[in-house]
């Protein structure tokens, strides 16, 4: 799905509890690459605070990081054929790494949402796919026959592309 649709955005959400920080420092440091890098950077920032000890005792520090492709800048540079291609590849690689690094048995609260260019969402434990269709109206309602027709077409498309097998 990542290769076929590309990536619109990656949202990383994590909680930095003391237990999670200790686990990152002591165990499996390499298996959580991006999360570990975030923790390292935050610790660097917090270390500059003279009251660093009080920050370590806080139980709930949340980090939200969003990686997106800048469509506005790409539009401004649309005459340059190669503009943005490398950025899109970086997003795809980051999304693949996040999915490959995800460990459902980890006590880290890894929470991410990867949004594809087709507006499909990839969560740690599920994938949501969607599409937009127009269903014929009948007064203030919709045609049940037309709705079922579009649903069958969408189901068959998902089945033929292998999305349902994943």
Structural summary, described in words:
The protein has helices at residues 2-5, 18-26, 33-47, 52-57, 71-76, 85-101, 144-161; strands at 7-15, 62-68, 111-116, 121-122, 127-128, 137-138, 141-142. The chain contains seven helices and seven strands, in the order αβαααβααβββββα. It is an alpha+beta fold and 166 residues long.
Blueprint (SSEs and pairs):
Blueprint: H1 2-5, E1 7-15, H2 18-26, H3 33-47, H4 52-57, E2 62-68, H5 71-76, H6 85-101, E3 111-116, E4 121-122, E5 127-128, E6 137-138, E7 141-142, H7 144-161
Radius of gyration: 21 Å
Provide mean pLDDT, rounded: 76
Form type: extended
User: Helix/strand-derived class?
Assistant: alpha+beta
Work out the helix count.
Answer: 7
Question: Strand sequence of the main sheet, in spatial order?
Answer: 2-1-3-4-5
Number of β-strand runs: 7
- Poorly predicted runs are none
Alpha-carbon distance between the termini? 10 Å
What portion of residues is helical?
40-55%
Order of helices and strands: HEHHHEHHEEEEEH
Profile the largest sheet: 5 strands, antiparallel
Our estimate of the beta-strand percent is 15-25%
In short, what is this structure?
The protein has 166 residues and is an alpha+beta fold.
């Amino acid at each position: 799905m990542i290769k076929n649709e590309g990536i619109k955005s990656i949202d990383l959400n994590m909680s930095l509890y003391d237990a999670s920080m200790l686990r990152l420092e002591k165990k499996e440091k390499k298996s959580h690459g991006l999360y570990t890098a975030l923790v390292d950077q935050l610790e660097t920032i917090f270390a500059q605070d003279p009251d660093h000890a009080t920050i370590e005792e806080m139980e709930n520090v949340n980090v939200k990081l969003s990686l997106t492709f800048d469509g506005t800048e790409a539009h401004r540079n649309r005459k340059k054929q190669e503009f943005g291609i490398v950025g899109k590849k970086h997003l795809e690689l980051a999304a693949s790494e996040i999915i490959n690094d995800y460990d459902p048995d980890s006590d880290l609260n890894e929470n991410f949402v990867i949004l594809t260019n087709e507006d499909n969402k990839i969560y740690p434990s599920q994938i949501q796919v969607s599409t937009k269709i127009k269903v014929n109206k009948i007064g203030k309602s919709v045609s049940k026959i037309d709705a079922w027709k579009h649903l069958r077409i969408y189901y068959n498309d998902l089945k033929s592309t292998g999305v349902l097998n994943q």
